[in-house]
Write a structure and sequence with these properties.
169 residues; mainly alpha; 88% helix
Length: 169
């Protein structure tokens, strides 16, 4: 969804800048629910207030609901239908390409500093542990949460120390 959101929200409709979209994605990832729903709600609210957020959320949810409802009705047929199996394999490859393109676009807008390099490294190591060594995703999630909390606290302490120094000058 991220590449589609980026293309529609930033490039096509110009409702948000690339850096604002990075913030939207960060907020959407940290709140409960699918990223697409959270991002749609946030962008809808930004563009048209509370009504915009509600309409964006409902507009995003209804088509998915209908598709899942139809698939569930014909599930037995879909699960054994060879063209459908091939379609889903192709979709997996397409999603990988879309994600890679989104990462490249976001990479250009990232502000690299010591904290972002450390967080990126920990994330890459966690994903490798998950993919290669079959480490439980629960443990990796706990490590990610702990890292986020610790880095957030460090940032807060660092910012407070900087503000105190500025006041003394």
């Amino acid at each position: 969804m991220i590449p589609l959101i980026q293309k529609d929200v930033v490039e096509k409709r110009k409702w948000s800048s690339e850096s604002e979209l990075l913030d939207i994605i960060a907020i959407s990832e940290s709140t409960p629910g699918p990223i697409s729903v959270n991002a749609a709600t946030f962008v809808g609210y930004k563009v048209a207030g509370i009504i915009g957020g509600i309409v964006a959320t409902i507009s995003l949810a209804i088509p998915s609901f209908v598709i899942v409802l139809l698939i569930s009705y014909f599930y037995e047929t879909f699960i054994t239908f060879a063209p459908m199996i091939a379609l889903f394999k192709g979709l997996k490859a397409g999603v990988c390409v879309l994600l890679f393109i989104a990462v490249l676009k976001f990479y250009k807008n990232l502000k690299w500093n010591v904290l972002s390099i450390i967080l990126f490294s920990i994330t890459a190591i966690g994903l490798l542990l998950f993919a290669i060594l079959n480490v439980s995703f629960s443990w990796i999630s706990i490590i990610f949460i702990a890292t986020g909390l610790i880095s957030g606290l460090i940032c807060i302490v660092f910012q407070n120390n900087c503000k105190k120094r500025e006041k003394k000058k």
